[in-house]
Amino acid sequence: MFPSIAWNLISLEVLMTIALVGLIIVDILSPKKTEGNLIGIFSLIALFGLIGFWLTQHDLSGSTFGGMFIMDSLAWFFKGLFLITMVFVFLMTEQFFKLSGKRSNAFYFLLWLALLGMCLIASSADFLLLFIAIEILTISLYVMTAYLKSDKHSIEAGMKYLILGSLASGFFLYGVSFLYGITHSVRFDVIQGFVSTHPMTPMMLFSLVLIFSAVGFKIAAVPFHMWVPDVYQGAPTPVTALLAVGSKAAGFVILIRLFFGVFSAWHVEWSLVLAGLAAITMTYGNLVAMFQTNIKRLLGYSSIAHAGYLLMGVTAGSILGASAINFYLLGYLFTNLAAFLVIILFSIATKSDAIEDYAGLSRRSGILACTLLLALVSLAGMPPLAGFFGKFALLMATIKSEFLWLALVAAVNIVISLYYYLMIVKRIYVDAPINTSPIIVSLPMRLALGVAMAGIIGIGIFQGPFLDAAMTAIQGMHF
Amino acid sequence: MSSIIFYLFAGVLIFASLAVVLARNPLYNVLALVVAIFAMSSLFVLLEAFFVGMILLLVYAGAVLVFFIFVVMCLNLQSDTTILLRQDRFKLMGWLIGILFLLEFFWVIKSTLAAQTIETSSVHGSIENIGRILFTDYLLPFELTSFLLLIAIFGIVSLAQGAFKTGKEGNS
Question: Nearest CA to CA, how far is A390 from chain B (Å)?
Fold first, then answer.
């Protein structure tokens, strides 16, 4: 029988597709030598329209396509995260074209497809749909990572990401095939029903490990982190930002759905393993980050460390833990995007990503220095910024779930991370600049930097509404 | 009877897969993969999944891998690049992980077979059945694969566009 489709639940994705097709048509019809960047401007307008539409979907809840596609508060929350991330990524792309000197509209289309993939991941309630959604996201990221064809770092990054990513996809499918063999279904609700009535078998454990390794690859958890430093360094900066924020958030929405929903009945069995992974991940990321000389590579290792902090929330396994993840990701979004905005604006002016070139940035551009200061200090977790309260919530959730040792490891790690974040701050504000020519920042970019800074400070000071939003997202989730 | 055929093709599959990884000449790697896929499609036919078996044979062994062979023959793979790939530490790590994985897998299968028998599905994998499921229950994932093709087109066009140009510049 043909299933009936509730179009209002999937309308955001449908509108996204229409926007993409519309942009492709505009690209084909517009004359070859158009002044300015038509597709970029239209993309931003369409994105703001979609954000407006997303706001109206607040109370939407239900499932369609035979329970395969769900729209609940969790999906709504994460779709918002992805849309806001994309606004910044589009702005960065515009700057990136200025840097590389060559416009390419296909880059925008790939970004749109990545956005579509992320939104579908947030709404998947079926392993098959989840797989297709992950592939839509990852394959467009492979292409975008290798986009700078003349730069051998970019090609190397793309190749590494492609090979390791395909391996992760293979693991995911292998795990799902075992799951299908045991439960005769790939649907989340059926598997959840099976899990709540059966004890853990070795085969189930095996398939869970395989699926977790694939998702661990997405969130950059040790030992699936090998690709991170090279890819973060080699990829074009907008893609690095998308990887650091969007792709990581997409990984965590899968983890929340799987470990707080589908497999929640087995919480005790996997919590110790996750705790160990979280501890190793954050320690590794922070220790190696200390010795980096390239700022994108440093943020790559810092992103591994942050995956470790976020895994603490999964370990906790409580509603508090899951909402702490959501809140942390919200703060992390503004913090990281602010840092990457500064990196791309700085690299346009100086053609460099080396940390030593950031010396004396405060005397060359006040706003860049100030934004980078706020972003780094927030990543380190200083009050009253967004990063502080996020870390606080995660630590609270961990302690309440009686993983005191893990919270202690995290506290030590936060102190270690202070060292390398503050080293950069020192370089920006104390060291004498090598080149004193001022860096000019255009008005739209000033606005974007301002919004990012407002996000970092606003979420840190007025945590209430944001924490409520994070909490509601978890309480209203179907899986 | 069918179990003899199963063990025959399963054995061929294992040997061919080993050859894919271990053969020294890239051409033999690809040819071994053709054999492996042939054996795999036979196993699918034994499971009465005729459509999947045929598609595997036609698309992979027939089209994709023959294309692979062309590519391998066009590239000059006897150069330094292949030697660089044979680094010993990766080899050791690969063997270790592979053996660990295999042992884990044996343990899983053994414990599961002792506990329960896995039932087979009563639905036959005919084209009609697969088509029906694809266009009703799994309509959304099926339609979404079109986006994967779209990404592939954008990817190939944008990655290959400048490649020929830089090649020319390098020559001149």
Answer: 35
